[in-house]
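wait is this the right file?? whatever heres the structure
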């Protein structure tokens, strides 16, 4: 690797009302390097990247590209300077084709678009970097993983020298992550510089050449995978040791609190997403569902929570038949639900932090008496939850959309985990949150289990499923491949079952 400095950020400071998001940050990226940027939720990672990409202007500090001031003050400038960014939330136009999205914004330069040659170049880039995608497909038809590949092709098409990836793996399945890493490594080997943001320490340790850690807007350390460990990185991020795997007390299982009987659910594409599935979860038990996303997990959870009407079968919560009931009815039967798409289904961005905490309970005591909202009690509860879940926000009156991605996640988890549900469904409970928050969420789930709640954990993170679950159910194409006891788990066998091998079960 050469030592050329592709990028040098020095002394970057950025304030928002009530928040010092970046405090005198230095960061440099060399040619051919994958540089990981780590830090807790709200540490300032996205802000720093948005400054580099010209979306925010720093209050002070300097951005040098190949030793010269970058002159970037808008995303168009950034692209001209060879900087591309894959955002935490994608920015494609769903009604256009892949090829049209790739050249979007370039046509302004006065060139006439030749769709044939665009498609050909897209095909070349896909082949060269292992980014499988059909140039003529419409973006809305693509899976999340495919959309991300389009974003990367778009960056390559513009000949980017420096690529910023803000939590690119948060939305991918494990096999997609592996493919992505092959692509990223090749992009770096071809002489680009990459900045990679992730909360998953395994990923950072396997992909990064160097690692910079941010804490409270400041650089708290710079290291390499060879010189550090996951435990040390956790300490650098959080400022204290973090327990990466939760302690599980001995199991005290009671009666059945949730039952799903021969459930059939039709998915968005009109096919049967859940194809005759039965499960029971007992009081004090965590049942984990392992499986590659898209095998019916989401439809199962939504059908249980009342968000999707099942085509056949029954759902029972504490003995009460809630099949096809309205979500609020299922909720009052004792179900709490942490949805996977929390940004879309879990909060209203324009509402304040306090309003979002109360979004689902505002109509019941003690927060509401004789039709009147009791703001004192509401404020107390919001304050308490924000403190316990360490949601980083300047105030309870801050609009929720101003919070960092992970802090919005924590807010929803705080709300859903704070009642005393009979049954809790947690889909991807730690997706997008930092390791300190993941530690806390895992502890809360185990505490909830201790209170006798029946818990269904749906996660793509096998380590998480194995750490939390008393039994693990594997689902494939909407069917149960088998259920394995905690004491008998064999990772290889799990993997085979997840891939649909019935011999393994
Ligand atoms: N547009 C904005 N207006 C006000 N405050 C903001 C804005 N953008 C970010 N912040 C605040 O700046 C701080 C840093 O946020 P940032 O999004 O950079 O964090 P992050 O490290 O990317 O976190 P995460 O891991 O949760 O994505 C947070 O306290 C956040 O609330
Ligand atoms: Mg962020």
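ok assuming it is, sequence goes like this
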């Amino acid at each position: 690797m050469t030592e050329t400095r592709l990028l040098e950020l020095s002394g970057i400071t950025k304030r928002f009302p009530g928040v010092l998001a970046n405090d005198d940050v230095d960061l440099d990226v060399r040619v051919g390097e994958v540089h990981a940027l780590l830090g807790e939720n709200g540490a300032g990672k996205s802000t720093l990247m948005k400054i580099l990409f010209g979306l925010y202007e720093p209050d002070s500090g300097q951005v040098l590209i190949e030793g010269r001031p970058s002159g970037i003050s808008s995303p168009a400038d950034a692209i001209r300077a060879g900087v591309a960014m894959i955002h935490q939330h994608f920015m494609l136009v769903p009604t256009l084709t892949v090829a049209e999205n790739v050249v979007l914004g370039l046509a302004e330069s006065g060139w006439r678009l030749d769709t044939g040659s665009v498609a050909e170049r897209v095909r070349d880039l896909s082949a060269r970097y292992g980014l499988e995608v059909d140039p003529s497909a419409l973006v809305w038809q693509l899976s999340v993983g495919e959309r991300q590949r389009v974003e990367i092709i778009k960056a390559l098409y513009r000949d980017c020298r420096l690529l910023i990836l803000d939590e690119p793996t948060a939305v991918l399945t494990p096999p997609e992550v592996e493919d992505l890493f092959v692509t990223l490594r090749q992009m770096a080997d071809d002489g680009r510089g990459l900045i990679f943001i992730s909360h998953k320490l395994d990923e950072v340790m396997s992909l990064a050449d160097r690692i910079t850690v941010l804490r409270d807007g400041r650089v708290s350390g710079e290291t390499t995978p060879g010189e550090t460990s996951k435990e040390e990185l956790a300490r650098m991020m959080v400022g204290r040791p973090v327990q990466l795997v939760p302690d599980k007390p001995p199991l005290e299982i009671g009666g059945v609190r949730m039952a799903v009987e021969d459930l059939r659910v039709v998915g968005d594409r009109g096919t049967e997403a859940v194809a005759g599935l039965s499960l029971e979860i007992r009081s004090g038990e965590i049942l984990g569902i392992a499986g590659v996303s898209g095998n019916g997990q989401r439809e199962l959870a939504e059908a249980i929570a009342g968000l999707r009407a099942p085509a056949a079968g029954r759902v029972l919560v504490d003995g009460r038949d809630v099949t096809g009931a309205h979500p609020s009815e299922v909720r009052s039967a004792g179900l709490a639900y942490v949805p996977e798409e929390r940004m879309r289904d879990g909060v209203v961005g324009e509402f304040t932090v306090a309003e979002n905490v109360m979004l689902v309970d505002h109509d019941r005591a003690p927060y509401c008496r004789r039709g009147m909202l009791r703001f004192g009690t509401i404020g107390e509860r919001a304050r308490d939850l924000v403190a316990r879940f360490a949601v980083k926000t300047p105030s309870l009156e801050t609009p929720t959309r101003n919070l960092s991605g992970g802090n919005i996640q924590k807010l929803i988890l705080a709300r859903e985990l704070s009642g005393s549900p009979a049954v809790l469904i947690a889909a991807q409970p730690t997706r997008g949150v930092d390791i300190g928050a993941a530690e806390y969420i895992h502890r809360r789930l185990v505490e909830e289990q201790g209170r006798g709640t029946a818990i269904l954990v749906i996660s793509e993170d096998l380590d998480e499923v194995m750490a939390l679950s008393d039994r693990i159910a594997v689902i494939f194409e909407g069917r149960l491949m088998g259920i394995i006891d905690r004491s008998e788990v064999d990772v290889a066998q799990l993997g085979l079952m997840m891939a649909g091998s019935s011999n393994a079960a």
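Residues 5-238 form a domain with the Rossmann fold fold (CATH 3.40.50.300). so i think its the right one actually
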